[in-house]
Predict the structure.
Amino acid sequence: MSEASPVRLRLLVARRVQVAAYFALIGAVLFLAAGRLDWPDAWVYLVAHFLLAAAAQAWLIRQDPELVEERGRWGANTKPWDRWIVSANLVLTLGLLVVIGLDAGRFKWSFVPWPVRVAALLGFLPGFGLPILASRANTYLASTVRIQDERRQTVVSAGPYAAICHPMYAGMVLFDLCLPVLLGSWWGLVVSSVMIGLLVVRTALEDRTLRSELPGYADYARGVRFRLIPGIW
């Protein structure tokens, strides 16, 4: 067994526990808001997303364990404004799940036709896949906004970064838009719109930070002009 194997095994176990706890929380909030457990759509979503997330996590640990370690902690020099944004996003995420549970699971305020839900599923897939591609291309993809001087952070322009500056955030926008529709809740889009607005603010602030503090980023951003949506912004 190589020296790296125990580290990867420890990471795998720790992240599997983390992923399981995360989805247990999501499920608890959804089903408590719905007031019932017999909600097939929610079960299918939770199981499918959990399996995809666990597989992606295991793959990333094999590919780049240092990135997994980085994403599992808050760096000491995380920008103060990003701590507030991350905390607000967590609260909004829980709020989104509550609204979806109340709407689609309990009171049936919304009716989302199946073709629209299928379209949301098709949008959900790149919403999940873009962050994976970004993680594969960018070993500095931290969970909070900070300059990783201790890792000698450099500009990344490969993979999805050749098209947009913030592919992970683009995936999160798709995820926030598609999740409530996929589960059958129009009202969830109200919360999603707030989350997306907050994400746009975070993108702009991170972009400003990188331009001023990461050597070479300003030149990269002049070549790759779009932050989230190619041809738009």
Observations:
- Helices lie at 4-34, 40-63, 65-71, 80-107, 114-137, 167-182, 188-213, 217-223.
